[in-house]
Write a structure and sequence with these properties.
Layout: H1 2-27, H2 37-49, E1 64-69, E2 80-86, E3 89-95, H3 100-139, H4 142-147, H5 164-217, H6 224-253, E4 264-267, H7 268-285, E5 289-292, E6 299-302, H8 304-321, E7 326-334, E8 337-344, H9 376-386, E9 390-396, E10 399-407
Parallel strand pairs: 5-7
Antiparallel strand pairs: 1-3, 2-3, 4-6, 7-8, 8-10, 9-10
Helix pairs in contact: 1-3, 5-6, 7-8, 8-9
């Protein structure tokens, strides 16, 4: 904003300088640029020669101010004049070199035009300052605060048509991050309590096993029947520990991401347009052929935002793990469902890895040199199940094909 204020000050200074300079030039004496008074003198000489001149005719003259016949005080050193001989007599024509009315009218017109232009320039700059730069300056600290984890301060909404939706989106992002943080803290707290509880529960059967083992090692139980009972007790305690370990493993594998889905209805074309607009440009930049097949528009069931997220995840995988030659989207219909298939050329995934592509944190043999978390397709499957849909993958003729299934309304 300080830089814009400096620019605004420079513009104002330039406008004032040009305004003052232009008026100074107009006010300066520029009589040397021409002698229009001679035209009027010639016209009056012609009228005197024809004996049709009258003093009242001077009222129509802009430059000539008086006509005098030769006599006393004929030569007047205090005024500008020219002398002409007409019909054997000398006439003196007094004149003024400049037309004040012309100069005044010219100055008025130029000042009006320049004033309007200056007002428009200043108005535009003020509009940019207060309607565009000022709201944006208020947002300049928000990304920094979010990066530090300061998620509590809400972003004030505005009706600004340039940043209204952006501000709303930033506030939604802040709220989403805050909710994710709270869920993550709650999940960590629950897991910690579960692990503490299971660790405490394991101690009891473990102590019993140690006690039985120590007794057997010292020969405290010489009766074979008693020894069998002790062995069975040890086995039972081991089973109990195994149960606790299974609970720990289950807890570590349970859902660690929250998938909020708002079920509704939307047109297939809306989903396709959102994907096509973004990836047409992106794939053209990396010289990858991108084709969107023909389809019949219809209403489908699901969450439009989550559906876009699913297709985007699949598209990103196609770009990342394909050979970069082509990616296409095709459509089909089966049993009242819409099937959307994303195909990429150059699949390097082994057939043996195909059943695991939707597992969490799993990465195939073709992902060794690519960055990733192994969660993309896992998230897609969870979201599709939340929307009562399905997703599956297959390899066709060396091409990777991932298909999502949406229910028609």
């Amino acid at each position: 904003m300080k830089a814009f204020n400096r620019i605004f000050a420079v513009v104002i200074a330039v406008i004032i300088s040009v305004f003052v300079t232009a008026n100074a030039i107009l006010l300066s004496d520029n009589s040397g640029n021409g002698r229009p008074y001679l035209v009027e003198v010639s016209r009056l000489v012609h009228e005197i020669e024809k004996d049709s001149f009258e003093i009242k005719d001077l009222a129509n003259c802009e430059y000539v101010t008086g006509v005098n016949i030769y006599g006393e005080d004929f030569y007047n050193p205090t005024s500008d004049y020219v002398i002409r001989e007409i019909n054997g007599e000398l006439y003196r024509f007094d004149y003024t070199a400049n037309s004040n009315s012309d100069k005044t009218s010219t100055m008025i017109i130029l000042n009006i035009i320049f004033g309007v232009m200056s007002a428009v320039i200043i108005a535009v700059m003020l509009y940019v300052r207060f309607k565009i730069l000022a709201p944006f300056e208020k947002l300049s600290d928000i990304p920094y605060e979010l990066s530090k984890g300061n998620l509590t301060a809400p972003v004030k909404e505005t009706k600004n048509r340039f940043f209204g939706r952006f501000i709303w989106g930033v506030d939604m992002l802040r709220e989403n991050m805050e909710q994710q943080k709270e869920r993550e803290l709650g999940l960590q707290r629950e897991k910690k309590m579960l692990l503490l509880s299971l660790s405490h529960d394991i101690k009891t059967p473990l102590s019993a096993i140690k006690l039985y083992s120590k007794a057997l090692s010292k020969g405290l139980y010489s009766d074979t029947k008693k020894q069998l009972e002790i062995a069975e007790s040890i086995n039972a305690k081991a089973d109990e520990i195994e149960s606790y370990v299974s609970q720990i493993i289950t807890a570590s594998r349970e859902e660690f991401l929250s998938f909020d889905v708002t079920m509704g209805e939307f047109y297939l074309s809306e989903l396709v347009n959102k994907i096509s607009i973004y990836y047409t440009e992106k794939l053209s930049l990396i010289k990858t052929d991108f084709t969107v097949g023909s389809y019949t528009d219809c209403l489908i069931s699901g969450d439009i935002d989550r559906s876009v997220e699913v297709i985007q995840n699949i598209m990103e995988n196609a770009i990342k793990y394909g050979d970069g030659k082509s990616v296409d989207i095709s459509f089909s219909e089966e049993d009242g469902c819409i099937l959307i298939t994303v195909r990429n050329s150059g699949c390097a995934l082994p057939d043996t890895d195909l059943p695991h592509v939707f597992d969490s944190f799993w990465r195939g043999a073709n992902a060794e040199n690519e960055k990733g978390s192994g969660l993309g397709l896992y998230i897609c499957r969870q979201l599709m199940h939340k929307m009562n849909g399905e997703i599956f993958a297959e390899i066709r003729n060396g091409n990777m094909c991932v298909t999502v299934v949406f229910g028609k309304v």
